[in-house]
Amino acid sequence: MSEGYRGRYGREESYSDDVIFGADASRKDPRPQDPGPQEGPGRHTRPGARGSAVSSGPFVEVETVTKTYGSGETAVTALHEVSLSVPPGEFLAIQGRSGSGKTTLLNVLGGLDRADSGRIRVGGADVTAMSDDELLALRRDQVAYIFQGFGLLPILTAAENVGIPLRLKGIDPTDREERVRAALAHVGLEQHPNQTPAELSGGQQQRVAIARALVGGPGLLLADEPTGQLDSATAREIMDLIGRLVRETGMTAIVTTHDPILLSLADRVLEITDGRLGESP
Length: 281
Ligand SMILES: Nc1ncnc2c1ncn2[C@@H]1O[C@H](COP(=O)(O)OP(=O)(O)OP(=O)(O)O)[C@@H](O)[C@H]1O
What we know:
Residues 1-57 are annotated as: Disordered. One of its GO terms (cellular component) is plasma membrane. This protein is an alpha/beta fold. It contains 8 helices and 11 strands. It has a domain at 4-9 and 17-25 and 38-54 and 88-96 and 131-279: P-loop containing nucleotide triphosphate hydrolases (Rossmann fold, 3-Layer(aba) Sandwich). 31% of the residues lie in helices and 22% in strands.
C-alpha cells in the first residue's frame, strides 16, 4: 500500500473513541413521543436460527432497564423496564417507529449512555456498574457500532478510518496495515484504501464503516438503522453484507431497522413501542 493509512497528511493521528463512536450516537433532540403501534403477540424467527442452538449463557442480558430524559412535565421515558436476553452469536433485529427508543436502547447497551435503573451485562460484565474509564474500555474492546450516517471521519482515508480501533488498542503499524487491508477486502473495498469518505458513494462509505466495526474483532455489534440513508439496491447489498459477516464472525449483533429484508435476515425480531420491548407481530 503506497500512502496507506499513514494518511494524505503524512502524520500519525490519535483519536479518542468518544470522537469516533460518539459522533452520531450523541445526537439527541427532545422530540414528542410517537404513539406507535401496540405490541403484538407472536415472534418472528428465522428458520434455522443459530440463537436457539446456543447453550451457554446470554452474551447480552438486560434486566428492567429504564431511561428517562429530562424531568418534570417535559420528561420523556425512552425505555420502560426493558428486559432482554441475547445468546452469543444471535443476530437480533429491533424494529420500531421513530422515537420508540431504539437508539436509546443501543446507546445504553454499548455504554454510550447510562440507564437510570436496571442492569445490563455484556459478555458477563456489568455495564451498569462500570466507571467512565471502564465504559471506554468496553467500547474499545468489546463493542462496535455502525450508524445510519456512517460516522466516518471526513479527513481520513478509508484505510485510516478502518484502522482507528486498532490504533486505540495499540496494535503495531505492520499488523494494523495487514488487518486493515484484510478488513477492506472483506467488504469489497480493497481498491479504495486511499479515498476519503467524500470520494466514496454512500454504500461504499457504509462498507468502510462496517470494516471499521469488524476490524477489532468485537464481541458485540450494534447497528442503528445501518441502511437508513441508502437507496434500496445499495441497502440490500449492505444488508446482505452485514448478515454474512455476522454469521462468519459468530459475533452477537443487535440491529435496529425498519427494513423488511434486514428483518428477514435476523434470527429474531423484537418490536419496541414507546420504550417497551415486545415480540414482533
Ligand atoms: N437527549 C434527549 N433529550 C430528551 N429526549 C430525548 C433525548 N434523546 C431521545 N429522546 C427522546 O426519547 C425517545 C426515544 O428516542 P430514540 O432516539 O431512542 O428513538 P428512536 O426509536 O431511535 O428514534 P429514531 O428512529 O427517530 O432515531 C423519543 O421520544 C426522543 O424524543
